[in-house]
Design brief:
The chain is mainly alpha-helical. The protein folds into 2 domains: 44 residues; 54 residues. The chain is elongated and about 80 Å long. The N and C termini lie far apart (73 Å). The relative contact order is 0.06.
């Protein structure tokens, strides 16, 4: 009985040590990643980094709607890229999609 309890305790301690080592590695990796991110984006003003993003259900809904509009326009541009081989057509579709984006957003997500 004592041997089995000792064995079980040793196994629990080994698993706890592995979990602690894994947590430590994750924390170190996050710290390295944070330091790298700060080094790369340190020259960008804080107001441009997107940290002051609104939270809440309505803000999330708006972000989802904008993302969907972007995806629709991206699909249109990719299809146009493969259908029409000329650079002028690619440029036209790109400029037109930028100009049409607000109209498409309004048509897709009307505020009745």
């Amino acid at each position: 009985m004592a041997k089995t309890r000792a064995k079980a305790r040793a196994e629990r301690e080994r698993l706890a040590a592995e979990a602690a080592a894994r947590r430590e590695r994750d924390l170190a990796r996050r710290a390295r990643r944070r330091a790298l991110w700060k080094r790369v984006t340190g020259w960008i003003p804080a107001s441009w980094r997107g940290r002051n993003r609104q939270s809440g259900a309505l803000a999330a809904k708006r972000r989802k709607q904008r993302w969907l509009t972007f995806l629709v326009l991206l699909v249109v541009n990719v299809v146009a890229w493969f259908v029409e081989p000329t650079w002028a057509a690619h440029a036209f579709v790109l400029v037109a999609s930028v100009l049409v984006a607000p109209v498409l957003y309004t048509m897709l997500f009307r505020r009745d």
